[in-house]
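Re: the request from the purification team.
They wanted to know what the chain is likely to look like in 3D before they choose a buffer screen. I agreed to run a prediction and write the result into the notebook, where they can find it.
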Amino acid sequence: MLEFHYPEIKDRVWVQPILASSGGMGSEYAFGTMYIWRWTYHRQICRWNDFVLSSLGKDQHSYAVPVGNGSRKEAVEALLADAKERGIPFRMWGVTQEEIEEFESLFPGKFLFLPARNDADYIYRSSDLITLAGRKYHGKRNHLARFTRTYQWSYEEIGRARFLACMEIAQEWCRKNGSCGEDGRSEENCAVAVALHHFEELHMIGGLISIDGKPVAFSLGEEINPQCFVVHFEKALDGYDGLYPAINHEFASHALAGYEYINREEDMGIEGLRKAKLSYYPAVLLEKYVAVLREETT
């Protein structure tokens, strides 16, 4: 069997270069995604030749698409063999439309590909989010103008001195939106805390907006590759009209102009979140599929 382990900070040295060189723009191509959510999704990794292999899930075990240099066919065969040895059904998550064609060529008729629309990544041109040019962004520009007129606000780059402020925003948002457990914690807040605790080691960057001196919104993410940046978290407190458009725009303008694309991750099937993400007109809706063996579905 393959020897998977939960990712450690030291793994970034070998994992991130492989992920970045692949050219993939999905959020799973950032090491930080693997690391900050490792306990929530039971994400484990394994080095196989020059590939990063990854498994997800505790009760419903699945694999991620192999990423690396060399024979993709042999890498998938290694995962198939691992599933057989473990006595579990084979499931491979995160297959893109382009990869469906590749796997159909490598393994004709072997897999069924099941759509996972809720996992699709919303990827935008950075220039669109920064300039908000054209008629389609007219409403966004109006929101920003009204925000600017209404509040005394400031933007700053997140540094260690502002980590506590970001956690307080995340915790207040969690309480107001009913997503905290009885102990006041949430899996997302735990991931935020991990990202902040290892901020420099994970090469995170972020931005913070304050109104009348009070921190009220932050955005936080990391580079996937030199062309694409992923925003992991964006939180804004209630009661400030236009605050979400403001933190979105300010972070992109101040920190992300050097990237061609900005990945703002999935909508998880939440109707309001889907509507909000679509309202910014993604350049790419990166839909993903789950590959299963035909023989295991009949």
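For the purification team: The chain has two domains: 9-118+287-296, 121-265.
Please add any questions underneath this entry.
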